[in-house]
Amino acid sequence: MARTLPAIPKPVFESASREGDGKQMQNAILLDLPRKECGAVLEKLELVRLKLHQIVHEAGEPLKSGYFCNSGMFSIVSVMPGGKTVEVGLIGREGFAGIPLVVGFRTNFTRTVVQAEGTAYRVDASSLRNLFRKCPKLERSLQRFAQLLGMQATQIATCNRLHQADARLARWLLMSQDRVHAESLPLTQEFLAQMLGSDRSTVTESATRLQKKGLISYSRGHITILNRPSLERAACDCYGIMQQQTKQWQGQEEA
Fold it and tell me: Would the pTM of this model clear 0.70, i.e. be above it?
């Protein structure tokens, strides 16, 4: 279970910057709320610590809570009957884990696992439903994030079918860095293989090739990005497609 941290005073919620140690408000959805919704939302949130590889939602089980990622990263994983897994989405401090709750569903189709330890603001499922009645901006923002997550899942599925392991690994590392905001990512090759739907030897070979090119370094369960521009060139088109679509939708929202 996630460990509850001390309550966060209201001034931090209203004025916190996007940078910090994970105890300040960094979630983009929450930071974008109008002042009149802040108080109602804050009353229903608790800041919790997330441990590496902790499962916060299991496929098929009831959704008791949703999580506004504040630091670290969630991985959305599709689980097959035989136990094999493949990642279909990543959530950082731009988003929310527990999207089925937004449209009134009470169970999760996928597994949500902590890919990089950090913190999140947890909200009870029933409290979230009640908040929608008086917080239209919150509901609209979560609906829009659901579309972004759906687009991401579609593109990742395409990527896993059409592209080679090296390019897929590069794409995944770029997406992870965008959400963790750090050069070093705590990743074992075994866990990475599960996320990419590949065997461990394939991931090892891909990581070795990227390392020989000077793009990354790998040691003791950590992958460090050394040359991001070159890694972007090594990635498949999927990374750029998702970035472009996200910017396009954000522009439409602002307009």
Answer: yes
